[in-house]
Each structure stands twice: as structure tokens, then as C-alpha cells.
Design goal:
The chain is α+β, with helices and mostly antiparallel strands. The protein contains eleven helices and four strands. It folds into two domains: 80 residues, 3-Layer(aba) Sandwich (Glutaredoxin); 131 residues, Glutathione S-transferase Yfyf (Class Pi), Chain A, domain 2 (Up-down Bundle), CATH 1.20.1050. It has a four-stranded mixed beta sheet. The mean pLDDT is 94.
Length: 239
């Protein structure tokens, strides 16, 4: 059996520099390594006080970055591809999606969320909220639509019962989307008293199932970390 690789993941630190900070890219890679079942060291980095040795490892880079057998990787998308290729079957589970549509599900949510949450003008809030909500509805439709393998098992199915984007297991697509949805939930509740509507049953089911998984729940930053990160960009509505 091949010797296990030496892996160290450097992620953004919290404000107190002790725990994981708000960074969906850091959480994405943290989730991937945990789901792979790989042995790895997690190091939180406060870049304002980062030791010179870390600045030398990845000059000019912000976390996350990865050291894999002494090789430094700094691009999140490339790190994801690298881990899927190098932590491969049979020793490690495959995390890529069966269906390409799963990779793009929800990819417009964060952009509309940003426009919605950065606007202080109550006069255009409803318009921005509608646009943001439409992206959640679109994701919900994907989650409620049976996937081909579900239809193979039950040709008469009209509603999907799957747990996650691509089926019954968390995939790379979930590792990308879920950290962003967690941010959306926390910030929208604080600044707009907006909750994801329970009527979006597919999305509600998806999030409920995701929060039951240690690989997601225990990699999420504290809500206070998210709100600190958004303090300077999110706006309350003008009265």
C-alpha cells in the first residue's frame, strides 16, 4: 500500500485567530479533505500577523492554500481538481458529480444575494429581493426534479427525494455551494429578517440534510464571524 501523502491545509483564521474564519473557499477545501477521509493538518492563518515562513510559502496569496508532499498549491479550483485526481479510488472516494448540471446548480445565488444585501435603498429592495428569491426558486426546482437514476428506479416519480445536489452523497458541487448558502442564511436573517421560505421544500430538505453532516456542520464558521466579515458591506435598509 502506498504511503499516505503529507497534507497541510491553511485556512483563514477567525478574528480571535483561534478558530476558522469566514471564507467559503477555505470551508470548501476543508470539506473535501474531510469527505475524502485523508489525514491532514489544518492550520488557521491570520494574514495580518502571518509568520514570515508562511508568507514565504505562498507569497502574495491569501488562504486557503495547500501543501501536498512539500508542493504548494494556491488556486482553489486547481486544488479541488488536484485532490480529486490524487486522492483517488480505491483508497479514497470519488467526489465529482454524476450529472454536469449539478455542478452549476445555485451558481447565480451568491451574485444576486450580494446585490440584495448591499443595497440600503428601501425603494428598490423588493425588486432586488425578487431577483434573489428567483435564484433560490431555480435551485429548489433542480432539487425537486428527479435525476435520471431516480427515474430509472421509479419511472413515475414526479418529485426527487435525494439528499444532496447529485444524489445520496455529498459531492464537490455541494462543497462549493453549501458554504455560500450558509453565509446567505446568516446575513439575510440579520440584515433583512429574511428566511429561506419553507415552501421551497427541495431546498429546505437539502439544507436540513446538509447540516446533519459533520463535514459541513463542523466546518462552518461561527455566525458571528460571518457577520463581522459582512459588517462593512451589508447594509440595513434606510427607514
Amino acid at each position: 500500500m502506498a504511503e499516505s501523502p503529507k497534507i497541510e491545509l491553511f485556512v483563514k483564521a477567525s478574528v480571535d485567530a483561534e478558530s476558522v474564519g469566514n471564507c467559503p473557499f477555505s470551508q470548501r477545501l476543508f470539506m473535501i479533505l474531510w469527505l475524502k477521509g485523508a489525514n491532514f493538518t489544518l492550520t488557521t492563518v491570520d494574514m495580518k500577523r502571518a509568520p514570515a515562513v508562511l508568507k514565504a510559502l505562498a507569497p502574495g496569496s491569501q488562504p486557503p492554500f495547500l501543501i501536498f508532499n512539500d508542493e504548494v498549491k494556491t488556486d482553489t479550483n486547481k486544488i479541488e481538481e488536484f485532490l480529486e485526481e490524487n486522492l483517488a479510488q480505491p483508497e479514497y472516494p470519488k467526489l465529482c458529480c454524476r450529472y454536469k448540471e449539478s455542478n452549476g446548480a445555485g451558481d447565480d445565488i451568491f451574485r444576486k444575494f450580494s446585490g440584495y444585501i448591499k443595497n440600503p435603498n428601501s425603494g428598490i429592495n423588493n425588486m432586488l429581493e425578487t431577483k434573489f428569491l428567483s435564484t433560490l426558486v431555480k435551485l429548489n426546482m433542480y432539487l425537486e426534479t428527479p435525476l435520471p437514476h431516480e427515474l430509472d428506479q421509479n419511472p413515475n416519480a414526479t418529485q426527487s427525494t435525494r439528499l444532496y445536489l447529485d444524489g445520496e452523497s455529498l459531492t464537490l458541487a455541494d462543497c462549493n455551494l453549501l458554504p455560500k448558502l450558509n453565509i446567505v442564511k446568516v446575513v439575510c436573517k440579520q440584515y433583512r429578517d429574511f428566511d429561506i421560505p419553507k415552501e421551497l421544500k427541495g431546498l429546505t430538505r437539502y439544507l436540513d440534510n446538509a447540516y446533519k453532516q459533520d463535514q459541513f456542520r463542523y466546518t462552518c464558521p461561527n455566525a458571528s464571524e460571518i457577520l463581522i466579515a459582512y459588517h462593512s458591506v451589508a447594509k440595513y435598509l434606510n427607514k
